[in-house]
Amino acid sequence: MKSISIFGLATSLFTVAKGHTLFTSLYVNDVKQGQGDGTCVRQNIDLAHATSPVRDLSSDDMACGISGTVPVNYTCPAPTGAKLTFEYRLNPNKASGGFIDESHKGPVAVYAKRLLSPNADAAGPGWFKLWGEGYDMEADKWATEKIINTNGLLSIQIPMALPAGNYLFRPEVVAMHNVTPEVEPQFYIGCAQVFVESSVTGDFNIPSEKSVSIPGYLQKDDSSVTYNIYKDEEYADPKKAYPMMGPEPFVPVAVLTAASGKVTRQTVGGIPDSCLLVNGNWCGVEVPPYTNNLTGCWNAVKDCWSQADACWAQQPASGGRNCEDFTGPPAYELKSNDFPAPGPIPAAVNVDDVPQDHTSSEASLTTRVVVTSSVLVTVTVIPTPSSSSSTSPESIPDFTLRPTNTAQPSQSIPDFTLRPTSTAQASHTPKPKPHCGGRKRRHTRQRE
Ligand SMILES: [Cu+2]
């Protein structure tokens, strides 16, 4: 920890929270999900200690981090075979300022768990490891050091044999620098809520030796947990190989049920179309319509204020930048105040492990509209009738996505252009709506 600041308590609290690291943001195929960071990501809701690690191996916090047993509002869809990228930050609500504390050397892994319902328990059985790496003796690097080199970004490919459904993807960054026989490693974990869209359905059998319970998969006296990075690695001669934590990775290869060609898509838990602006797992919607009377106008303003309050109350550790921007029902145009990726999105670490052959061009068929922060696009969703009457609750008719203007990837300012939802106002210049910007200043101070 750094020395106590002369600027007082608020600054020193910030300094304390600055150490360590936090998984803040999810990308699917190189596109940051949602807006304002933290969409579909379970983060510690204690903003002052959001980067604190989990140390108690028997705690339910081991599953998805502190406060990670509670689902967040949104689950992001991802086509099977997609690349998921997890962003780690030293300062959760800032784009710069480091990724993982440099002293924090240790192994890194990614686990996953299929959820039979979006709100199913994170803690408990059913977890499997997709990939893991400890100490690379040849390169003399810990996996954490490699993540720092890729700007805090860690990518994994979703195996194509995973059946469609809700999953938790759990990156695990472990710091071993403080380990003694009495002190456990520090675990930096969080979970991404993802709906894998695939034509593969059916049961999902993980070999028993590769299926673990979290907590429970690690014991205090495991050699991977008690390993001393100074005695065993840095100054040892010969160096002692690091025994990787947890089970062997499970790479599903066989398609358990023949692919039907019909892609099962997410029907619940996504970001609603009615969202004007998203911040993490909060979304702001249009205020109630009113005619030209003061009562209606006032009610609309109050509604807007209460939405902004909810935004601040629900802001994740990764910040409330878009709460500042939700200053009033906009003239159908809001911009998300998003940070760009801190660097190039790295290739998936497990790309050599995951079979790449697949029976259909599924990935291109399952592209879905999410409120992305890096592409300016307006889309129309046209449902087409389903040819068969499926009884599966998760199966829905295919959607055709038709861009209504030319999608132009925006390099700089993330944008989100909205189309009017009311047909009453067909004018090309939408009327300004009441503004509740008076609260902006008050809330802006909240983060400092
Ligand atoms: Cu730490």
Automatic annotation (TrEMBL):
Residues 1-19 form the signal peptide. GO terms for biological process: cellulose catabolic process. One of its GO terms (cellular component) is extracellular region. Residues 20-233 form the Auxiliary Activity family 9 catalytic domain. Its EC number is 1.14.99.56. It holds the Pfam family AA9. It is found in: Secreted. Residues 430-448 have a biased composition (Basic residues). Residues 383-448 are annotated as: Disordered. Transmembrane segments: none annotated. The keyword Secreted applies. InterPro entries: AA9 (IPR049892), AA9_LPMO (IPR005103). Residues 402-428 have a biased composition (Polar residues). It is an enzyme of class 1 (oxidoreductase). Keywords: Carbohydrate metabolism, Cellulose degradation, Disulfide bond, Polysaccharide degradation, Secreted, Signal. Residues 383-397 have a biased composition (Low complexity). Belongs to the polysaccharide monooxygenase AA9 family. PANTHER family: ENDO-BETA-1,4-GLUCANASE D (PTHR33353:SF32), PUTATIVE (AFU_ORTHOLOGUE AFUA_1G12560)-RELATED (PTHR33353). This is lytic cellulose monooxygenase (C4-dehydrogenating). It comes from Xylaria multiplex.
